[in-house]
Amino acid sequence: MKGNGSILVLLLVAGMLPTMLGLPVVTQPPKPAEKEQKHEDSNVERMENIIEYNKYLQEVVNVLESDPVFAEKLQKAAESDIRSGVIAQELEYVGHHVRSRLDELKRMELQRLKELATKQFELTNEIDRDHLKISEHVDHSNPHTFEIDDLKKLILKTSQDLQENDRRRREEFKQYELQKEFEKQEKLRALDEQHRKEYEEELKRQQAKHDNHEKIHHPGNKAQLEEVWEKQDHMDGQDFDPKTFFMLHDLDGNNMWDENEVKVLFINELNKMYQAGAPEDDMKERAEEMERMREHVFKEADTNKDGLISYEEFIEQTKRDEFQKDPGWDTVDHEPQFTHEEYLEFERRRQEEIQRLVAEGKLPPHPNMPQGYHPDANLL
């Protein structure tokens, strides 16, 4: 990718992570009264873990961008060298004033972490200090200067977190689909033969109605983008122009598309399949479909794997033979999200959970799950 705003894989975070500070995580065995809220706390803790170093990351990126020599070396670096952190070796060649600013940033970050850790320890005076989490994005062994290991740790931590975000999203969607199948099977078991047939027929009608839509174009190819050009951009009657199209959707004018700018391109395709309030359309699946399309387009067009699609990368994509083809798109609702064995294991655990809640008096003694009951997946 070209230009000063694109020097580091760290910029994967641009437009994706909230700009806020997280807290160091303190773990301890929950008290009996705390167990009911454990799953809620874990969600907050997870978000704090992901963004705990975000401010520090942005400040380091800004300082590194100010050194033209480092920026030039990075632009010429191989993707594997960036992803692995080997590029951090180039820190040896930055100017003295840049190193001094990085040293100060590191000292400030370590001081912040120390103060937050101390405060958290004081608030939970029963905590064992051995369970205090040490943040992984800073080299704690050297608290005075910003070195190669600091840059490498920051690069690796950012890349790992963003990959983990997508992995978690896919796993959460899988659990959602398992739960949906479980509810359907439980309802079928509760019905007599006649009502079971009626319910199955209704499911078939809803599926047929959901499937009755226009062709879903291959995300990112010419046919799909031309439809955006005509319907969303209101350029019907004008020949598709890649340069103009890119500029129209470069919402912040930085000569790059981030993930949010790319996801807007799929609205028309998603509207073909999903409408809010329609019983046959699952909006959770719509959201997952958008993310799958986003991942696919970045895989094809983001050639330097920095999490952004530059103007140059987009133009190169439009020149490829594949850009002209439209093989269609296999939608998520027609792709299996779990195996039969995985469902049987999920069903076993869910039945055990229901029996436990019945025994605790939190559910009526009924052999089937009540309609609308959605237990938290964290309890599993």
From TrEMBL:
Task: Tell me which Pfam families the record gives.
Answer: EF-hand_7, NUCB1_N
**Per its UniProt record, what Gene3D superfamilies does this chain match?**
EF-hand (1.10.238.10)
Highest rank taxon of the organism: Eukaryota
UniProt record, GO biological process: carbohydrate metabolic process
Signal peptide residues are: 1-22
Which terms are listed as keywords in the entry?
Answer: Calcium, Cytoplasm, DNA-binding, Golgi apparatus, Guanine-nucleotide releasing factor, Membrane, Phosphoprotein, Repeat, Secreted, Signal
Task: Extract the ranges annotated as region (Disordered).
Answer: 197-218, 359-380
GO cellular component, as recorded: endoplasmic reticulum-Golgi intermediate compartment; extracellular exosome; Golgi apparatus; membrane
Report the residue ranges that make up the EF-hand domain in this protein: 289-324
GO molecular function terms noted in the UniProt entry? calcium ion binding; DNA binding; guanyl-nucleotide exchange factor activity; hydrolase activity
Ranges of Basic and acidic residues composition bias in the record: 197-214
Q: Where in the cell is it found?
A: Cytoplasm; Golgi apparatus; Membrane; Secreted
Q: How does the UniProt record describe the way this protein sits in the membrane?
A: Peripheral membrane protein
Its family remark reads:
Belongs to the nucleobindin family.
For this entry, the protein name equals EF-hand domain-containing protein
Give the originating organism: Anopheles merus (Mosquito)
